[in-house]
Amino acid sequence: MVVALAFFVAFALPIVWWPDTPAVLLDACEWVVWATWALFAADYLVRLRLADDRLRYLRRSWFDLLVIVLPVLRPLRLLRLVTFLSLINRKASSSLRGRVSTYVIVGTLFVAVVGALAVVDAERGTEGANILTIGDAFWWAATTMTTVGYGDRYPVTPVGRAVAIGLMVCGIAILGTVTATLASWIVERVDEVNDESDAILVEVRALRAEVAELRRAASRPATGSSDGNGEDFPADSHREVFTG
Fold this sequence. Notes:
Elements: H1 2-16, H2 23-50, H3 54-60, H4 62-69, H5 83-92, H6 96-123, H7 134-145, H8 158-219, E1 225-226, E2 232-233, H9 238-243
Antiparallel strand pairs: 1-2
Helix pairs in contact: 1-2, 5-6, 6-7, 6-8
């Protein structure tokens, strides 16, 4: 994470401060970029060396290898920052919906920032380009991720269009996740209401049964007492018999 953050700062500073970035700072940022690339490559080689099944590891970590081998994809090394999501996720919520919400919010901000930096870095200095400032890049990233696509800003370079494709896919995935999370929340609320209704219905049925039992008990004739000869007389005549 520390190396990824260092790469992020070194990658972003010259883009944000362009064209007024001092030459010394540009050289330092370039050195940091290549140093972090070397550390990522060494990390990959060590993990490959320690893997029990190296062929399986190569198949499962093809994206990491692609990011290291192809210089044009060097900005994608910022995806290593998604480990921050795991740390935030531990503190955010214990529920699945809370974790999903955390991934959506942080992931959206992360993808938007990375996409804006990558596209403005690719478009600057290209003839016919219209995404020249970081503000334009953030506006374009927002309209692209939300699938609005006003068309006032658009990439013209192959790298910029590749970034646009990535943002479109991420935007659709994020919108789908938000929709699914909202639908899950609504379904859970409906289930809670139904559970409460079922509990109330059970209680009402129990009360009805008790009332019916009380009515049956009240409708039974009163049982008298015996006079000693085996004859019963109503309980209301006790006072007359004893006083007579």
